Structure formats: structure tokens, C-alpha cells
Amino acid sequence: MNRFVLCIHNAENPASLIIGKVYRRLPDPQAEQHGLIRIIDEDTSEADGYLYPQEWFVPIELPPVAERALLAMGV
Asked: Within the chain, how many helices (H) and strands (E) appear?
């Protein structure tokens, strides 16, 4: 599982998702069985993240230094 994803669609949730932004993906095997992905979005009030359709995101690999920086920021 990639720890980070890139948003490629936000038509239904423009206030919660920004196209082109990197989001942290949280493991959720049950959600993935239903075509959903759990991420930490712009509304960081929910520590468990929110569910969105998987097709709205593209998994990405980041260099370790970038991954550490994002995790330190709470992304």
C-alpha cells in the first residue's frame, strides 16, 4: 500500500479535496473492498480520515525525505 496519493478529482467535494495535492492514505481493507480509500483531507478534525472513491486518487511513491517531512507536518 502506498502511504500517499495524489488527488485527481474533486467535483463532488471541492472544499475537502484539492486537485494535485498529495494526501496521506490510511489503511482500511474493508473500505478498499468497496472501491473506497481512506485519507486525511482538508478537514483534519477527523483523525481517522474520510472515505472517498479510489478513482479520485493516484497512488504515488515519494522520496523518503519528502515522506518524513509530510508525516512530521501531520499530513
From this structure: 2, 5
